[in-house]
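Narrative of accomplishments. A recurring question from our advisory board has been how the design workflow behaves on a single, concrete structure rather than in aggregate. To address it, we present the structure tokens for one chain from the evaluation set, followed by the sequence designed for it. No filtering or post-editing was applied between the two.
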């Protein structure tokens, strides 16, 4: 081993190609997260439902009741059962991502490390890609990985089950679902982390986003069917009594301009442009006559 004097240590090539910047960031974040005792403990707790489901699958198949596993429920081996299993992992996913992702960008901003990072050959794309991969890895660690292992285990203990579903279709659905969900959640958490410099505030925003009450499908459907008080029909705005109002003239002028702008440079006649133009001229002519005669003289 060479011994150098105090000062600058000269660079010596190792003979290996340098790793991409995004991979260095992702690897560093994953190793740091796994060294965190709370994160490691939550990962182990998140694997308990998968172990319980595997035990129930084994016990049910040994009892000879395969139809029960195909009928539904979170212990079933059909796609609906795996979807319910992923929904059960909501709290572990929330807690692990909060601990790992809250300080990914906020801590760099607090330590003024961004100026140091970007002064080196590191681009914004590599920086964000490495940070997103950290969150996607921990999301897959408690959702996708146990689900894939359960697919293989269910096929191993139940050879009479459909191999096409358990070994191809269900894993493909799981990869697509977990990939899209993990990527979207990672981007949202990174956006929260980039807004502040204190990870504790990022955790608060992440908690509100994850557990805030959302309107149900029935309430959204009822609100969409309920007409607004300010909403008026097409016939009421095109009648002569309403068309000559200032509001109707302004609407006709806007529709005429927008339609003609859209048709500009395109060959062929435009019926909507002609109708809007005629309505605009008629309203302005009638409004001009009413202004000359005075109100109540039509």
């Amino acid at each position: 081993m060479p011994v150098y004097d105090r000062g600058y240590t000269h660079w010596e090539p190792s003979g290996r190609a340098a790793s991409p910047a995004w991979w260095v960031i992702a690897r560093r974040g994953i190793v740091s997260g796994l060294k965190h005792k709370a994160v490691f403990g939550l990962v182990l707790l998140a694997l308990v439902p998968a172990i319980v489901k595997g035990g129930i699958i084994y016990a049910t198949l040994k009892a000879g009741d395969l139809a029960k596993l195909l009928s539904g429920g979170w212990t079933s081996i059909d796609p609906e059962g795996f979807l319910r299993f992923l929904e059960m992992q909501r709290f572990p996913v929330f807690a692990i991502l909060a601990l790992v992702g809250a300080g990914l960008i906020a801590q760099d901003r607090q330590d003024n490390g961004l100026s140091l990072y970007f002064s080196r050959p590191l681009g914004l794309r590599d920086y964000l890609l490495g940070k997103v991969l950290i969150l996607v890895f921990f999301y897959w660690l408690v959702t996708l990985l146990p689900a894939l292992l359960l697919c293989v285990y269910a096929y191993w203990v139940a050879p009479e089950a459909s191999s096409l579903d358990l070994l191809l279709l269900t894993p493909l659905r799981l990869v697509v679902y977990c990939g899209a969900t993990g990527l979207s959640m990672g981007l949202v958490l990174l956006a929260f982390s980039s807004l502040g410099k204190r990870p504790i505030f990022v955790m608060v925003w992440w908690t509100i986003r994850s557990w805030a009450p959302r309107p149900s499908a029935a309430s959204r459907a009822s609100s969409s069917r309920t007409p607004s008080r300010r909403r008026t029909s097409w016939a009421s705005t095109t009648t002569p009594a309403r068309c000559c109002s200032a509001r109707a003239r302004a609407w006709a002028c806007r529709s005429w301009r927008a339609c003609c702008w859209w048709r500009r440079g395109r060959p062929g006649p435009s019926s909507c442009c002609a109708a809007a133009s005629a309505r605009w001229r008629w309203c302005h002519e009638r409004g001009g006559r009413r202004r000359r005669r005075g109100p109540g003289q039509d």
